[in-house]
Specification:
With 85 residues, the chain is mainly beta. It is built from no helices and 6 strands. A hairpin with a 6-residue loop joins strand 3 and strand 4. The termini are far apart.
């Protein structure tokens, strides 16, 4: 995701995002805040806040799900062959 200057149209910043999806964007031209929802295959959805008046972008997580620790699950596939089939 990229940020451009409204007056000049010049590229200002590139948001520091992994490969994933932006679910929604929220903000007003007169405010200096931008909120966005990001999710990916490995990351549950998070809501970020970004201060647009700052010199550099430094989005902060304002809402993220609390997940219980995962236990590793082992999956085993066995192929059985019968002589008469």
């Amino acid at each position: 995701m990229y940020l451009y200057d409204l007056k000049t149209g010049q590229h200002r910043e590139t948001f520091p995002l992994d490969v994933g999806s932006i679910g929604s964007l929220s903000g007003r031209k007169e405010d200096a805040e931008l909120f966005y929802y990001f999710t990916s295959f490995l990351t549950p959805g998070k809501i970020f806040r970004c201060d647009m008046a700052a010199e550099t972008l430094s989005p902060t997580v304002i809402l993220a799900p609390h997940l219980a620790p995962r236990h590793s699950i082992v999956s085993v596939t066995v192929g059985i062959s019968h002589p008469g089939v």
